[in-house]
Design brief:
About 45% of the residues lie in helices and about 35% in strands. It has about 90 residues and is of the alpha+beta class. The protein has a single domain (about 25-90), classed as Roll (Nuclear Transport Factor 2, Chain: A), CATH 3.10.450. A hairpin with a 2-residue loop joins strand 2 (about 50-60) and strand 3. The two termini are about 25 Å apart. InterPro entries: COMM, COMMD4/6/7/8. It comes from Osmerus mordax. GO terms for molecular function: NF-kappaB binding.
Length: about 90
């Protein structure tokens, strides 16, 4: 049994990941950078932000997810996406 598991581990892992990722699949992404030029809070002037629109496939339908991130939040998001991609690449 242990030998069979070790022989088929890679294939089973790829199949499991593939099934998991089909639940919510990123179909499209739109993004815009912006700079705050008018606000009642002086410390927020000149802040850079990013607006994201993610199109997620959920089964037979799609859902638009809108997010607005500060530049540090965007870099954290990007880092997490790169980590997720690296993890998925290990199984393919």
């Amino acid at each position: 049994m242990n030998t069979m598991w070790s022989v088929h581990y890679a294939v089973l892992s790829r199949l499991a990941i593939g099934q998991t990722l089909m639940v919510n699949q990123l179909v499209d992404m739109e993004w815009k950078f912006g700079v705050t030029v008018g606000t009642s809070e002086i410390q927020k002037l000149g802040n850079i932000f990013l607006q994201l629109k993610l199109v997620i496939r959920k089964g037979n339908s799609t859902e638009n997810v809108h997010m607005e991130l500060t530049l540090p939040q965007f870099y954290n998001f990007l880092h997490e996406m790169e980590r997720a991609k690296a993890s998925m690449d290990c199984f393919s």
